[in-house]
Write a structure and sequence with these properties.
This protein starts with a strand and ends with a helix. The chain has helices spanning 14-20, 78-90, 96-108, 116-131, 140-143, 150-159, 172-175, 179-184, 212-219, 223-229, 237-249; strands at 2-6, 25-28, 42-47, 50-55, 58-59, 72-73, 136-139, 164-167, 188-191. It is built from 11 helices and 9 strands.
């Protein structure tokens, strides 16, 4: 069983789906503390002026250590503004007319004040259908495993009987410190190796790291092929550790 564990992002970038396309199961990490103005509540689209943020308004309670699963959207029709901005910037994109009605439905069908995670899960599942991928999605809150950082990740992998854990490269800093936990559990660890591909955009110059909406509206059924074109062989922990050491000595 190959597993990815990642937080539920709003309108994720294309590398997020490359990561998910390489595994059998995705654990949506919604049982950890929410950070305000994180990727869980915002992302960027391409405009004539570069990348522009779309932010979901939420009720935030830092003092109580609010978990992602408990974060609620505080303006029930926020999506109307997001759709107006998206339409303004993408209405002339080749695949806008095909996907925009589907996006409207995915954004608007979650009730008055839904949990943020429900919105994000609905959008991730919509992207799965558009891109034609289908790893199993499980929320960590449903598995009810305990622990912090690597301890929690290992416990989740064990619960799913995983023998391979693919991690975003950004998590290497703390994962490498506790790699023995994975080894002792018989879990191989590798890190995503992704080079952002270029594709057709509405406005020049090309800007990487936009929401996957940008790719879908511009490239349609070629989107997953383009995402996969940026995939390289995953880094081993030794490769990442060596690169980190070289970087510190330069």
């Amino acid at each position: 069983m190959r597993v990815v564990i990642t937080q539920p992002t709003y309108l994720p970038w294309i590398g997020y789906f490359d990561l998910m396309d390489q595994v059998d199961c995705v654990v949506v990490l919604d049982s950890v503390q929410f950070e305000k103005r994180s990727w869980q509540q915002r992302n960027r689209i391409k405009t004539p002026h570069g990348l522009e943020w779309l932010t979901v308004p939420v009720t935030f309670q830092r003092s109580v250590g609010q978990r992602i699963q408990d974060v609620k959207i505080c303006q029930p029709r926020f999506w109307e503004k997001h759709l107006r901005v998206i339409e303004h910037n993408y209405r002339r994109a080749p695949y806008f007319d095909l996907y925009f009605p589907q996006l409207l439905e995915a954004l608007s069908t979650h009730g008055e004040y839904p949990p943020l995670v429900n919105l994000n899960l609905g959008l991730i599942e919509w992207f799965f259908r558009v891109l034609g991928i289908g790893p199993k999605l499980i929320c960590s809150s449903d598995l009810d495993e305990k622990g912090k950082r690597c301890e929690l990740l290992v416990n989740l992998c064990r619960r799913l009987e995983a023998d391979f854990y693919l991690s975003p490269l950004g998590s290497a800093g703390y994962l490498l410190q506790d790699l023995d936990r994975f080894s002792e559990a018989g879990i191989q660890v590798a890190f995503q190796n992704y080079e952002h591909p270029q594709y057709r955009q509405m406005f020049q110059p090309f800007c990487p790291y936009a929401s996957a909406l940008d790719l879908v509206f511009n490239e349609g059924d070629r989107s997953m092929e383009i995402i996969r074109s940026g995939r390289r062989l995953p880094f081993t922990p030794d490769q990442v550790a060596l690169a980190s050491t070289v970087g510190m000595t330069q």
